[in-house]
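We treat protein structure as text, and this decision shapes the records that our systems exchange. This encoding replaces a full spatial description with a residue-level series of whole-number codes. Below, we set out a record of this kind in full and without editing:
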Amino acid sequence: MSRFGKLSHVVWHCQYHVVWIPKYRYKILSGPVAQDAHNCAHIYCDRLGCEVVELNVQLDHVHLLVKVPPTIPISKLMGTLKGKTVLRIFSKFAYLKQKPYWGNHFWAKGYCVDTVGLDAEMVILVSPALFIVTLTFDLS
């Protein structure tokens, strides 16, 4: 299987590393809450057509490495993930709605996202006329 995805007019490899935290960075993501957050991330990524490459739920943050098609903005993915997981978590763990926690807020505003590039220092582009152009990048 190729690491590149295909759509009708594009061959793509868009990977993002995303990190987000619970409100006030409380250490609440353990046990069944962490397991539910993990399951929700897989479910909603699959529903949007994204592929979870790696997912790690820590006590106070979540790391996600995800392959996202170019038709899906990362903001839509994160809005869906954070919005849907909190609804499911609050429905299963009602005690999280009470003080000293958050009322109706679980995740902090925002997230950190970074792109993950190709591993090669050399990129080969093939034009429609089958001419090969080689570009080299000096990464030092």
